[in-house]
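dumping this here before i forget
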Amino acid sequence: MPAKLLKGADVAKEIRAELKTEVENLQAQHGVVPGLVTILVGENPASQSYVRGKQKTAHELGFYSIQDNQPADLSEEKLLQLVDQYNKDPKIHGILVQLPLPKHINENRVLLAIDPSKDVDAFHPVNVGKLLIGEPDYLPCTPAGIQELLIRSGTEISGAEVVVVGRSNIVGKPIAAMLMQKAKSANATVTVCHTRTKDVKFHTTRADILIVAAGVKEYVTGDMIKPGAVVIDVGVNDVGVTADGKRILKGDVAFEAAAEIASAITPVPGGVGPMTITMLMKNTVRACKVHNNIKD
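structure:
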């Protein structure tokens, strides 16, 4: 029987409806509105598309939002001054500096300059450390989206064998840390595979939940999947265009073969992707509460 599709677009829509109500309540009961600034340096087309999506969602949810576009030749010091300006702005609760930055700017220095309480991407070492010890203020957006997909699909995480293929700071490491916590919607036994793993298939075929963020088109094939597993494909690989000019996207999992073996699987596109921006919005609402001493 073909696998159930875990459509992130549907789940994201559900969460955004919840957030919209929460934003309305914050304004009505406390007189505050979540504030988000996205800073874009240069004119990278992909980055422009990403920030447009973030700003569009913020406006739809009723946020106070700013899109701060800066020229590609902006100096690192000027960017740091801009970040400091928003750190001090009481109307801004979330700061997002769109990556990648121009090569003359040290990305780490810029990310470290963001006030951790306004770091809604959860990339600052303070927030990474809090995540690791199980006391996060904010969860990194893509891993948080993965966890929500698992929860809302009714997937049993506690006690499950989870295998993560990929060890990036953005997906692999944080999702492993999140799912191994002694916490609700966690308590999994987690294995992380990477480029130095001798026998990836040995591990993946043991996984009740398989999360693939390898960055390689169709890296995981059907014979690498345990029958009945839940497969989360984080990969987005551009493999060309159709005759009418639409991009053709493939995941890190060979979808057709995997869908015949797994019990549930995320499609590409439309799986994990739509969740990322939604979880950014959730973090911004959380940041608004933190800055205004409002309990969840």
